[in-house]
Every structure is written in structure tokens, then in C-alpha cells.
Amino acid sequence: MKKILIVLATAWLAGCGDSDAGKPKDATAFFRPHMEKVYSAWSTLDASKPAMFYAKDPNLAFFDIEPLKYKGWQDYEDGFRKVAAGYKSLEITVAPDFHATQVGDVAWVTYTLDLAMQPQTGDLVKVQARGTDILEKRGEEWMIVHEHVSVPMAQEQPKEPPHKAKAAPHHKAKKHR
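The chain above was modelled as a monomer; its predicted structure follows.
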């Protein structure tokens, strides 16, 4: 009888657990303000400002607009300092398409960005970028453990749609006599 009560109590306790644990949930409202703080920090052009939002593991990969890849936070911070030296100002705005999904202590966010960059010399440059971040809850803080920000390649528009392109002239081979 004692074993049956233990089994029943264990089954009942298991049923009381969070049945949604492990299921993805929309966490956009929670993470959007967090990521706006991240990009506000980047907009200062001071690489030490966004540091608090990033995990410091040495083998983490971060992909930014330039260069191709940073390995670990220190590489990212050092690289951004070099890039930032060429700019007077930077304004980064998270676009309305921001979306976040969370499963337990892991979340991923996708978004587009509007950037207005003022080089030390030259005209203001405005570009749109796209981004994806993976965040992990470490203690009480959500830390970015991977980031990929890129700008789409400029695509040259074809002069005529392929289905309307003129066929190459067809030359008949001359018969040799």
C-alpha cells in the first residue's frame, strides 16, 4: 500500500509541474526593450557600453556588418573600436518587425535595424540591416551568446525580365561545297 501511495503522489506531483515548460512562447514584449537598450548602447560608439549585454566566453561567434566574424567578446569589442573610430555618430533603431521566442533559459530574437552613420568625413550613410541574436539566461541576466547582423547585398535589377528577354539570333550554318 505504501508503494502505491508513493507512486500516486509522484504521478500527482509530476502533473502539477508546468505543462508548458519546453514549449516555445512569444516573448517579444519582454525582449524588445532589452534589445533596444543593446542598440542604444552601440549607438554611443563606445564599445564598453554594450559589453554588459554580451556573454564573455572566448569561443562565442559574433557576426557584424564588418568584418566577417568576431571570436569572443574581447575580439568584438576591439574590432568595433577600430570601426567606430571612423564615425562621428551612429544611430541604430530597432524596426517594428522585432520578434522574440523563448524556451526556458534560451531565447532567440529576429529583427531589422535602421542605421544612420555619420563618417568622420563624408555624407551621412543610411542603411538597413537584419539581425538574429541568441540569448541565454545566466543567473538573473539575459546574455547574448550569439549575434548575426548583416546588410543584404545590393542586387542589380535585370533590364528585362528573363521570360521577356530576346532570344539570341539563330544563325544557320553555311553549307560548305
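The chain has three helices and eight strands.
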